Amino acid sequence: MAVQLNEVDKVVITTLEDNFVDLLSMDNSEVVTRAMPIKGMVFSNSVLAEHGFASVVNTFRGEEKSSVLFDFGLSEDVAARNAQAVNCDLSDIQVACLSHGHMDHFGGMKAMAGLIGDKGLDLVLHPEAFQTSRFVMPMPELKITLPVLTRDYVKDSGFNAVESAGPMSLVSGDVLFLGQVPRVTDFEKGSPMYYEKNGEDLLDPIEDDTALVMNLKGKGLVVLTGCAHSGVINTVKHAIDVTGVSKVHCVMGGFHLSGPAGAPLIDPTVQAMKEFSPDYVIPTHCTGRNAAMAFEKEMPQAYITNMAGTVLTFSA
């Protein structure tokens, strides 16, 4: 049974942290608004880029406005610093969501909570975001451990952890936390990352990987991923299945196609994305330069380069 997702009149996504920034791009449009390097008519305002992602999603439905925080970035202070640089007021955030329990998405949690204020807001996340023994293994016998997200850390940051493995309606049904994404394509096999269980090293399915979904009136779904470890095509397919909305307006987020492991997945992912025929495709964060260029080449009318500090406005 489909989860009811309200049609909204506008979706505004403000990227507070991403891997890329160019303050001289000068490519503003009715959809894209770039961060300005000017403060007090002096070229002195900086926005930082790093390997991480953080964003604010605002939806507008009639007189109703919602505000959702999606991810917190990597370093303790970068996303919060950028929020102040682009004058993004976090005091009206109603709920926070975490795409998955990797450091480049939760590292700035405490600083972001400080900008929100002491509200005890809910942080919606998959239970497996608290997996305790994750690591990467770039070569045999070389284990690089990943920082662990704990329930105490969430609580100490000022959030109330709300754990959900399935889809969850947020802000009166204007935004959907997608929950765990089924792996149904034959080419999206998951990321080469690991965890330890009972002394054994196992491939990490990263079951906590998820996305946010909005439904723009008359135009279709806006799907925002964090890293799409489940596969961005699997993620969009699941969003369609859960909402019952077949039209896709925008797919944005990290698609995790960078590096040697992602290279073989670029072409089948691009071709499958073209079948959805989204009006916009906006690779971010971990998508990788080669994959981003492939999307730009194959879907030039839909492609948008994202940057830290960019505001994207999608209107019905």
Automatic annotation (TrEMBL):
This is Beta-lactamase domain protein. Pfam families: Lactamase_B (PF00753). Residues 63-113 form the Metallo-beta-lactamase domain. Transmembrane segments: none annotated. CDD domains: DHPS-like_MBL-fold. One of its GO terms (molecular function) is transferase activity. It comes from Desulfatibacillum aliphaticivorans. It comes from the Bacteria.
